[in-house]
Amino acid sequence: MSIVFDWYENPNASSEEEATLHPRIFMNGKVDTDKLCYKIHERSSLTVGDVKSALDTLAQLFGEELREGREVHLKGIGYFYPTLTATEKVTRSTPHKTNKVAFKTVRFRPDSELKGNLLGIRANQSKYVRHSEKISEVEIDIRLKDYFAEHQLMTRRDFQEVCGLARTTAKTHLVRLRKEGKLVNVGLRNQPMYVPAPGYYGVSRDAKQPSR
């Protein structure tokens, strides 16, 4: 098994230059505490109950030590430490600054041993579109015209693939296109099938309005 990723444009890139990209991982599910307990049990002499009890105690100790402002180190895993944030804008002259501080989050810095275990990982680019291309409404109209020149019906997934859009963005555009009277859903509400409305995407204005 390998890590699955896709390429995303870096933010704040200059419009005069070709945008640079960065790889972003798609998480391959989640391992919960129960599963970890069973895995530890399989590799040790501890029962599942013993492991759960130890982890519960560890979580309590973490909270106690972090509340005291201590960094907690788990050998082979990494360092955990608390961070703070100001609850409002604070300057040198702000009175009662101590009252304007709150807990923010717990940060993590991995051990070199943990990072070493990840060296040489395999990474494959996702075969599916999980984020949207930068595409204008005019370009969408052009792609739809080309699509309907060879097809009679379009599903939401077809629309995603043709326009290079993620599911949520595709649904937003489909709602817009229906409101603008360009597409008509001739399928079911939960299983829509789209066709061009008369006057759009190569369909004559004199064509019969498709039934909804």
Automatic annotation (TrEMBL):
Compartment(s) where it occurs, according to its Swiss-Prot or TrEMBL record: Virion
Pfam families, sorted: HU-HIG
Molecular function GO labels: DNA binding; structural constituent of chromatin
Assigned keywords, A-Z: DNA replication, DNA-binding, Late protein
GO biological process: DNA replication
Residue ranges of domain HU in the record: 1-120
Annotated signal sequence range: none
One CC-aspect GO term: cytosol
Family note: Belongs to the bacterial histone-like protein family.
Functional note: DNA-binding protein that plays a critical role in nucleoid compaction, genome replication and DNA replication and transcription. Binds to both ssDNA and dsDNA with a binding site covering about 15 nucleotides. Displays DNA-supercoiling activity only when associated with the viral DNA topoisomerase 2.
Assembly and oligomerization: Homodimer.
Protein name in the entry: Viral histone-like protein
Species of provenance: Bacteroides thetaiotaomicron
